[in-house]
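User: For a benchmark we're assembling, each entry needs the component sequences followed by a predicted structure for the full assembly. Here are entry 17's components. Please fill in the structure.
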Amino acid sequence: MGYPHPIHPKETPLLSTHFGDAGARSYEGWVARGGYVALKQALGMTPEQVVDEVKASGLRGRGGAGFPTGLKWSFMPKDDGKPHFLCCNADESEPGTFKDREIIRWTPHALIEGCVIAALAIRAEVTYIYIRGEYTEPYRILQTAVDEAYAAGALGANAFGSGKRLDVIIHRGAGAYICGEETALMNSLEGRRGNPRIKPPFPAVAGLFGFPTTINNVETLAAVPHILNRGGAWYAGLMLGNPKSTGTKLISVCGHIQRPGTYEITLGLPMKELIYDACGGMLPGRTLKAVIPGGSSVPIMTPEEVDGCVTDYEGIAAAGSLLGSGGMIVMDDSTDIVYQIMRLARFYAHESCAQCTNCREGTGWTTRILERIVRGEGKAADLDLLLDLADNMTGKTICVLSDSCATPVVSGIQKFRADFEAYLSGARAPALVGV
Amino acid sequence: MAVEMLSVTIDGVPVQVARGTPMIEAAKMAGILVPHYCYHPSLPSPAVCRMCLVQVEKMPKLVPACVTPVADGQVIHVHSPEAIKARAGVLEFLLINHPLDCPICDQAGECELQDFVFQGGRANSRYTEPKRYNPVEDFGPDILYVANRCILCTRCVRFMESVAEEPVLNVSERGDRAYIGIDESQRLDHPWAGNVVDLCPVGSLISKDFLHKARAWELDGTPSVCTGCTQGCNITIDTRDDVVVRLRPRPNLEVNRHFICDTGRADYRWMNRSDRVEVPLLREGDSWRAVDWDTALDAVAAVVARTDGPVVLLTDGRASCESLGWTAKLLEGRPLTSAMQVPLGEEAPIGAIPNLALRRERAANLEGARILGLAGDWSTAIAASAEAALVVVLDVVLTDTDAAVVSRAGAVVHFATVADPRLTSTILVVPVATIVEAQGVLVNRDRRAQRVLPAKPGPGMARPGWWVAAEAWARGEAGRLAPVTADEAFRRLAPFASMAYPELGFTGREVATATAGIPS
Amino acid sequence: MSSHTTEPYLPVFVGDNLAKLEALFPKYPTRMALLLPALWIVQEARGWVSEGGIHEVADRLGLTPAYVRGVITFYTMYHTHPVGRHFIQVCTTSPCNICGAEAVAQALLEHTGCGELGATSPDGRFTVMEVECLGACGFATPLLIGDDFIEGVTAAAVPALLARYP
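Assistant: Structure for entry 17:
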């Protein structure tokens, strides 16, 4: 549902059915709403059967990369005699993205259940849920739910009397965007700086504490009980014409929009219907200027690009951007797009882990140029310089934070060049930078 | 199990390398340097500087050569337009916050940032924004951190963490605010900490001892071996106008990898002593007469010839095999007691590298003396001196007590770098070169024979100890021919008969034979 | 950087806090993994992590103080300096920015008396920090006051909100 708004007919509530329903938070409340049936079922299945069911569903990673979940799980070694770990990435930090927060706040047991089903599938006993430090309320709610699940025997040494050990441990982050990158998250969990690791080795070979590890996003895991309950084929049928993008996706919509909130759509819904119907469209008297559809790291879309775009992995890619995390930032004609791109660059400069030269220095330099442009001190050569720096920052570092900083700059200059030139020519008055 | 060899082509040069070799090392084998900062063969690779990105055919993105093992049949381009542009981009990024203070930077002239920017960087900077500024920090007894010059390659952090196993350095903060940090309660004073200065590819970690002492291009480097202990770490002696200003580690994977300890690093001031004996001195009653070498060598030969009784040879731990062996040869045929002075100190291992430590025995050529049969018990030799007809002191500084005992000998011949007035029985002082002023071989505790080269000339008439001994020996009997070169002097010592200098190279070779003996 | 206090350091890990830490040991295969949780315990107990706190955590987990310092400075939520009684984090990243977050931040600086970001008000009551995305972009502008997550704050609502934090 478009929490905090009522369910809109264009939505397909599945994960979001109980958003806003405080009764769903407790163990009993969750069981009363059909919870933990899927886990009991999974306890009677082989890991391969669980993996096959998820493979059949077509479920893809909801954190941003969109990698097929069942395939990811199948990379985990079998009979290697080593402990395996599941990491749940609840470090939701991508600007514009706040969907996992609602899952954790309203349906914590859906997440716990999804976690341990996935743990069974990858032959892990321990799941670490890494939750960002700023999510204080979701953390408390999730911790209570985990405690309840242990008390009810759903977790522990003998989960539901199955003889299988299933542990869930919540680990709080402490303020670092980059810890949402899967290997940085593992480093952080191990008590290190949240520096992304070089791949290979991939987590399935050597992940958390050096052991085979799978890491999945909150929304991905929360979808798993539904897939087990109703079958992979059923989930795969949730699509609007594109069999590569199946199921529902939470889209958190924010910015200049009538009803900001977290919406659940069947993948393939036209973006215009989401923005104008479900979310109520622009604020009075305003027109659409730009949409960043998948969290701040994806290319900015123009209204023309939004027009024919369908909201799924391939549809948004065809329109020149990415579905990403499903964090949609809507900007109307009141937006100073140059200023906002500067803010995004500043965000990445603030969050760069400092490992790779291109990112450490490039994000800072890009930010300082943009700040200067916004101060009214831009030079004609600045735009070409920004584009060349972006090229030097793209595809050359351990992780994609550097690329993410370059993306809005490049797409911004390409698609909103007139806005930049207005600053450069003095047609637009300088803005006061920062607070 | 045989190592599987793979064929790769790097910048058009075909090369065969073992499976698992990183591209950067494979390129070295092809004679191609892949520019890099964070990579170091003795440290784990973080692949963070992004300088070593190379293009590999059929791979979509540039890959870091330091952590990517080669695959069979790969075609790698270190100098493709794409790789060159990426490198220029990294260099430009590295310089935006760099103070460009090369004129006052000790690293200038041996700075990898200078070198690679000169090779492949932009001629000008496009950066017009303010630069980040951080103050200089005092990290330890001999180390300053100039944060503004730092390129965050983290070699220093990784050295302290993975090699010294004393992680007192860290990367602090994030993004372009990051710097190398230290805890305020801790100092960078590990006995091997000075290596971070050499590891630092730029002028960020610098030695206080070397601060503003010389420009790199004024220095002459000479391959040598540290004489601080029996480990035998390979070093380069840097001199400026024949004054030693710095010792640096010289890579030798068998002995010291890329490192030396701080004790060895600081052990050079004796090399620059100015109170040296510069001429042969002959005792005449209560006074000394300066003589030429002919006179001096005749005198040495005569003293030895007329000696009828026990002889003692006292040597310094830095004496070369050549000097030890030929001095012993000179004294052959007489009852000889010989010993090497071995000062003792604390053992200080580096940490994670097996068999690398500052050793307790602070006598570089102790094993050489053993092999030559000249490493007798020191106190026995000192005691024997009192009754000896002749004591030859081979450039060793004795304690007052030992000097008093030695002075009771019938006669003392002093092969000296510095005169010792306490040795009252001295009848002859011959000026000899120190180990850094002559060619020679030192044998380390693992029986590795390693060459040293003269880093500076000896003062005045000083000659190598072996030359003095051999020339005097030749005068002892008609038909004897003294060796002409140090190499010959070495080869003519029985234990080293099969080991000519060229075979030792500059990283040494193990001495095969275990038999002791003196010159043939 | 100098120490902030000359008073003797009183250990955090005694009694309940020690029990809390020890309860975590079996949950992780290494002691190092307890670093973030241990720092949270110290900060919850003291409001910030002092030099003494860094040393105590390092000792407990078998790490060096330098290592701990490298980690603590990576994460923005740990305070290595004392902060006001109520630590306010206000998001000003783009999604909130376009909805007026900078005005909220300005109002916070004004009405707390902090004057500038990162500074503590003269009465020791507040410290205001501008932070990047708090992950509640649909509810601009979100704040964290201590552990309280507050959504939909406007500049006009700031005085009344602050009154709830004496």
